[in-house]
Amino acid sequence: MKSTLYIILLTALSILVSLSSCLKPNDVFNNSGDLRFSSDTILFDTLFTTVGSTTKKFKIYNDQSDPIKVASIRLEQQTNSMFRINVDGVSGVTFSDIVVPAKDSLFIFVEVTIDPNNSNTPQIVEDKISFLTNGNEQQVVLNAFGQDAYFHVNEIITANTTWPNDKPHVIYGYCAVDSSVKLTIPGGTSIHGYNNSFLYVYKGALETQGTLGNEVKFSQSRTEDFILSPVDSVGGQWRGIYFFAPQNSTLNYTEIKNATIGIQIDTLNNQDSVTLFNVRVDNSSFAGLVTQGANLHANSCLFGNAGTYSAFLSIGGNIYLDHCTFANYWPAQRNDPAFAFKNYYKDANNNYQFRPFNSFFLKNSIIYGSNTNEIGLDTLDRSLTAIPNFHAVNTLIRSEDPVSNQEFYQNCWRNLDPEFASSAFWDFHTTGTAVDSKGTFTNPQPDLDGNPRSLSGNDLGCYNSP
After folding, report:
1. In the 8-state DSSP scheme, what is residue 224?
2. Where is this region: Disordered (predicted)?
């Protein structure tokens, strides 16, 4: 009996050894290699005019010498997604233990169906496909255009162009206005930037033709709320408007919100300028306005809440600011002033380079916020440079230091509360008397509400009492 059992065990062992010797190399899985994808973002850039469905594909690659077992492949929004996926010929939203052979690849097909005429559909529909391999998660982003709109996907405008205002415009990536070309945006146009997208004016010109009650509006493309915050309360959802050595440009009655930097202007000694009339910039995650060597004229403009600066004006140019409000009550901690002036920079060799302003005039304005000091003049030592070219006239400033230095300040007021209507809700109308009739008449431009200004006795800031 024992000898029979011994023979059986020996035979079984021989069979196991034989089977193990016959295992194919592809049955030994790689435990460290990651997947490679033919693309990390799948963009459905077809403009749907009716209920539309389209399919795209991408590949996942195994560059290793052993097969890889993907523990799971899944759509993050599962059955709530507008997307559907097909993995190796099988449709679904979740897949398990998918084997990608050594030095081989696998197709994944993605389909989306959207009704672009449904106003409840976001302008850009998003989801992600997650891949879990050996405890490591990788993702492929899915984006499709939702509502019927004009989409500008990494577009370069090479001829003078006027955008229609019958549908929204969505910028995905960038929309660039090329050299010596002008983009005109009529009143009533809404422009929406996707994550990190921006309108780039490169040696060209931009003109917005907004009017009171028919403004040009720039904001984010996202429409649905975040988990913990309303969508309209979150800054940094798109990059903003960026001028690089622009030709003469004018923005009229234009609103810009929820960007990283609302307006950035790099003029680079170009003699042309950017003019802002009745422009409102608010809720920028870094700054509402940034200039570097810029020529800028701003009248009746509001530069509101920002994560760092309402305005950062630096390294030269010609700046003229009249009846502007710089008000910063960012809800999180902010260590920098609302209004910053800087006339130097450090080069690649860590040497200081002096870049003085040709002219700098700030008139009839308000600089105020939640910090005790909301103005910062960052200049080089007087032994190295001349007196900085900075002139503030008839302006209310929140400052820890006196504003009596006649080199910089003429007829300015310190720490008089303008009593904004509601800084938490971006309403920077003044309700007190601190700014009443303290402004001079320097330009016939009406205030941000369209109220006229008189020859004397105007209120400080972008709003004037009717």
Report:
1. S
2. 436-466
